Amino acid sequence: MRFRDGRALSVGVVAAIATLVVIFYYPVGSVLASAVSVGGRLTLSPVVSVLADPFYTGAAHTLVTAPTTVPSGVVTWLRAGMPPVRLGLFGFTAYQAFLSTVASVVVGLPGAYLLARFEFPGRRFVRSVTMLPFVLPSIMVAVGFLAMFGRTGLFNDALALAGLGPVEVTFTLELVVLAHAFYNAPLVTRLVTAAWESVDSRRVETARTLGASPRRAFVDVTVPQLLPALLTASVLTFVFTFMSFPIVLALGGLQLATVEVWVFASVQNLELTEAATLAAIETALSLGLLYVYLRYEAAQIRPRGDGGGPTRTPLFVGRRSVLSPRRLALFAYGLVALVLFVGPLASLLVESVTTPDGQFTLEYYGFLLSRQASAASGTVRPLPAIRNSLLFGAGALALALPTGVLVSVVATRDSRWSRVAEALLTAPLAVSGIVVGLGMLRSLVFGTSLFGQRIVLTGPLAVVAVHAVAAYPFVSRNVTPALGGIDDRLVDAARALGADRTRALVDVELPLVAPALVAGAAFAFAISIGEFDSTVLLAEGVDSATMPVALERYIANRSLGPNLGPATAMGTVLLAVTTVSFVLIDRVGGRWER
Known about the structure:
The chain is mainly α. Helices cover 71% and strands 2% of the residues. Strands 1-2 form a two-stranded antiparallel ribbon. It has a two-stranded parallel ribbon with strand order 3-4. A two-stranded antiparallel sheet has the order 5-6. Helix 6 crosses helix 12 (214-242). 40% of the residues are buried.
């Protein structure tokens, strides 16, 4: 029986890894290989060519073209008072990621303080919605920011009521950074809140007993325990914004292009070698950053005290305390956070039913219906886009659910080989969708030979495969903690009654973790519905376009008019479908909750 148990798990792991080899490792490997080979010969010339080009690396290109002049060049630059230097594509990508990280920390850290230290009505709900950005399609949020901060958006409408002139912030770096903060500030809040709640209160009390002031105790005791979580959130935010694509594409365009946007533009221009080289360098940089993060996280693991976290105090405890400077600052922060996180979604809805002069209208939804009836070539029709999104989401879920469960089973097994298999199965988290989509184009979409067999994945199949790769980690993230928390005695009892390991998993463990499994399925389906990075490369024309792809084409098509009406209408439809799908899966699975 032990042999059969081990064989069942091994067969599952091998099958999952084999599938990832075909739809992930091989396509991504083809991209990386093209950066170090020309005509079948190993060479670094494509990489050197990119690194030596000032357009890509800015002033840093001298590190490749003239390394001996770098010391004197630095001295000259310092003597000149450190004037601005050309950043290049990679430098600008890192610069906007740094600014986005700073903005995310500035916005997210007060939220962590509020959730960890104060009790108030709706606190649990506020903490729960910090997961919302991981579900919302980024291209839809980008349209929401355009609707809010555009010349005819709600922000300028509010300024007009105050007698102030319009402010033009569209297609600026500031708007890109603000949108990145929308997505990543909740990540900072969530990680730091968890760390703050686990601070050993006895150590703080000991410091106070020894004469430390509240501020000194906070700096000397609390901050060192928060710093690992804050640095973790900062590194993850930097990696996410370094690889950001839909937000930069919609809010910045080519004038604020990052590496991801330029890779996409290169693919559109059929410059596949250049795109592959840029993607390979970007992937190497992101993997390096993730490696540093993992090493740092491992070094920070230490036993925590069991003295309990800090006691939360009521936020509303009388008029005098409410008017205290600290609470007034928190109220002001709450208003800013409300504008930042609710404003874009509210603007999306409002702008979809109002004209530029503020009159109610349904003409934008009528426009979508007219596009549905249009037979013109190149027309993106809404209903097929909705149908494609739902079908692709269902197919991706059918693949992502068993794969995510398998990763969770492997992650909860105490074995050296389990750790290796887990690392192989979670590798897709470190690679952007653009790189995976480009790899699919270069290999499986155009056809390739593997193990003597000709393999071709058409557009819809390729999209479903890539969506499944992007979605299954969200299943495992939900299932792994629940699976690891099951009492081992329940499984042992099932085994003692004659159940093998697979039967115990299906009959005992999975029913116990069904709520987490349903939550993971809801996240996976919503992630597939909103996936844009790889889909925009793999969708074959208008017939296989999804809702996010249709939305981007409505933004890009200036012939639709000077306003964002059609785009906001399509974005509202995308928001509705995403929300309904997420809630429906969650509700259907509610019968499993104990």
